[in-house]
Design a protein that fits this description.
By secondary structure, the protein is α+β, with helices and mostly antiparallel strands. Helices cover 31% and strands 26% of the residues. The protein has one domain (2-128): 2-Layer Sandwich (Heat Shock Protein 90), CATH 3.30.565.10. Helix 1 runs antiparallel to helix 2.
Length: 141
């Protein structure tokens, strides 16, 4: 199992640094460009939410990414208050005229699993990688 863990300052200025670090880790795991693009966009949305809604002065965003059993698992935790409907697993596409609400929908569309815990302050994104083994190498056909 390969693993990456880090704490970053919780403001919006850290979002790009965190996203690049996780994408670089995923790249080192042998994940193809198309899948990397989906992962990058999904974690960008998750990190933007953490920075916007979970930001406290002096607080951190904790990120853990793991390649485990043919899946990339990314956990992002912030120190915010969370949100009321964090257990909602039936999130539907927002109305096109809505100015907000597409982030969770997009994460669910791009990743295989999206789960919130701890009142919505922790998100777990999973992308199944059937062609990658646990060491980050392409499986033989």
């Amino acid at each position: 199992m390969k693993e990456f863990c880090a704490d970053f300052p919780s403001g919006v200025e850290g979002v790009g640094r965190i996203r690049r670090a996780v994408v670089q880790f995923a790249q080192c795991c042998g994940i193809d460009r198309s899948t990397l693009s989906d992962i990058e966009y999904a974690i960008g949305e998750a990190l933007a939410n953490a920075a916007e809604h979970g930001h406290d002065e002096g607080a951190f965003i904790f990120v853990k990414a793991m390649l485990d059993g043919g899946a990339l698992i990314i956990e992002i935790k912030d120190s915010g208050r969370g949100f009321a409907n964090w257990k909602d697993t039936t999130h539907k596409k927002p109305v096109s005229t809505s100015p907000r609400g597409f982030g969770i929908f997009l994460m669910r569309s791009l990743m295989d699993e999206v789960e919130y815990s701890q009142g919505g302050t922790c998100i777990r994104l999973v992308k199944f990688l059937p062609n990658i083994n646990t060491d980050g190498y392409q499986k033989e056909a």
